[in-house]
Specification:
This protein is of the alpha/beta class. The chain has 4 domains: about 1-125, 3-Layer(aba) Sandwich (Rossmann fold); about 140-260, Transcription Regulator spoIIAA; about 265-380, Transcription Regulator spoIIAA (2-Layer Sandwich), CATH 3.30.750; about 385-440, Nucleic acid-binding proteins (OB fold (Dihydrolipoamide Acetyltransferase, E2P), Beta Barrel). It has 15 helices and 20 strands. It has helices at about 10-25, 50-60, 65-70, 80-85, 85-95, 110-120, 165-170, 175-190, 205-210, 220-230, 250-255, 275-280, 285-300, 315-330, 355-380, and strands at about 1-5, 30, 40-45, 75-80, 100, 125, 145-150, 155, 175, 195-200, 235-240, 265, 305-310, 335-340, 385-395, 400-405, 410-415, 425-430, 430, 435-440. α1 (about 10-25) links the parallel β1 and β2 (about 30).
């Protein structure tokens, strides 16, 4: 039998799909070339924003055609969107044709549930919120031969007022240290050179064990140190980190690890203290600035990127101006900017003073204009510099050229050769754009 996976959402979801593929292939399934060739279709869902959820609803609705054309096909929907308390309504309105519905921590049971559906049982719905029994070691089908993602912690305890993640991913549970290290060594053995450590809040790694009395439990800094010792792994990145848990000591450790130190992603969300408090972020702009100052003191060559939300409920023009001023002072290399999107079940969704969409869009444009100018300035500083690039393959926008990333996660477009894919090559930067560098 053949399977097809459609993935929506973040890097965590992308890696979840790699694990689902690994689970299915371990059970004897093979990947299908396209949707029409599949015997099992899996939709890996996301609910972080309303726009994503609307796309998924439409996609699931359109799968009815698969049942008409191929009645024996098994349709499964898994992941965050399925974990929501409102999922019953969705299934009654748009998902009656689904055979299997699984939450965020039941994907490993997919082969079992497929067999049960084939035996005449169904539909099957399993959306248990408990992640404590989720296996620490599961097979994974790598989407790249040279770069891989590795889960280190599941769930989130932060409960930012705008975020649905803790409600659909459960509480924090650190993955077994030995299982992580075993996976890293296995990845290195098959030629992986870059790893991305994944979690809703990676720098909370080990805190759940210490709360349970394991005083000597490893923390995120120790995990980074151990990962850096894995021979063959050349670069280590992580996503995401939370400023509330990003200590000066962690910066000091990272600054001594050449495989890690040149890139920080530290989500700010707002440059206004009043809004940060309403978001329940747990830090002030002064706290954030102190971390940023420490990073630039210890690793001045490092690139720093961030996330920003525009139009949070109650955000005034004065509040937004504070964000603009703070971003101008921080001088980020890049920022991922988003309009605030109400998510049902979060405190922010019911807050008064929801900002009109037109105002949010206008503010977002001003923020993007500011950040683009800063990003271009940072990239222009690379002109004439020699950088080491991990070659990823052909450029998606121009297949006549190749693309890769520097240690600081800068995209570089250059004239390359097929045999360079997956290799570290030295290039001299000759051009700088807002979102990438060039080496021609």
């Amino acid at each position: 039998m053949k399977y097809y996976i459609k993935t929506f959402g973040c890097q965590m979801n992308e890696h979840d799909s790699e694990i689902i593929a690994g689970i299915l292939e371990s059970a004897g399934y093979q990947p299908a070339a396209d949707l029409a060739a599949a015997d099992v279709v899996v939709v890996n869902t996301c609910c972080i924003r309303e726009s994503a959820e609307n796309k998924i609803r439409g996609y699931i609705g359109n799968l009815k055609a698969c049942k008409y054309q191929k009645p024996g096909v098994i349709l499964a929907a898994v992941g965050c969107m399925m974990q929501q308390k409102t999922i019953d309504g969705l299934l009654k309105r748009q998902g009656r044709h689904l055979d299997i519905v699984l939450g965020t921590y039941q994907q490993h049971r997919l082969p079992e549930y497929i067999a049960r559906v084939l035996a005449g049982e169904g539909p099957i719905v399993d959306i248990s919120e408990d992640n404590q029994d989720f296996p620490d070691e599961l097979p994974s089908r790598l989407s790249s031969k040279y770069s891989a993602q590795v889960n280190i912690i599941y769930g989130c305890n932060n409960f930012c007022s705008y975020c649905i993640v803790p409600h659909v991913r459960g509480r924090e549970r650190s993955r077994d240290f030995a299982a992580i290290m075993s996976e890293l060594h296995s990845l290195a053995e098959v030629g992986v050179k870059e790893i991305m450590l994944l979690g809703q809040n990676v720098n909370s790694y080990g805190k759940d064990w210490r709360r349970q009395g394991q005083a000597d439990a490893p923390d995120f800094a120790e995990l980074l140190q151990a990962a850096s010792q894995v021979e063959g792994i050349e670069r280590i990145r992580y996503m995401s980190s939370h400023p509330r848990d990003f200590s000066p000591q962690l910066v000091d450790v990272i600054s001594d690890l050449p495989k890690v130190r040149d890139y920080y992603h530290l989500p700010l969300q707002s440059g206004c203290d009043r809004i940060l408090q309403a978001m329940n972020r747990g830090y002030s702009t002064a706290d954030y600035q102190a971390i940023l100052a420490r990073i630039r003191e210890k690793t001045p060559q490092a690139a720093v990127t961030t996330d920003l939300i525009v139009g949070f409920p109650g955000e005034t023009e004065a509040d937004f101006q504070q964000t603009l001023d703070f971003v101008a002072g921080c001088r980020f290399d890049a920022a991922y900017t988003f309009l605030y999107s109400p998510r049902s079940g979060t405190p922010a969704a019911t807050m008064a003073e929801q900002v009109p969409l037109a105002v949010k869009k206008e503010r977002l444009q001003r923020l993007v204009t500011l950040q683009n100018s800063l990003s271009l300035e940072h990239n222009q500083a690379y002109l004439g510099q020699k950088v080491q690039v991990l070659v990823e393959g052909l450029s998606k926008n121009n297949p006549d050229f190749y693309t890769g990333r520097t240690a600081s996660n800068k995209i570089v477009i250059f004239e390359g050769r097929p045999e360079q894919i997956g290799q570290l090559v030295d290039l001299t930067i000759t051009g700088a754009k807002t979102w990438h560098l060039e080496a021609f």
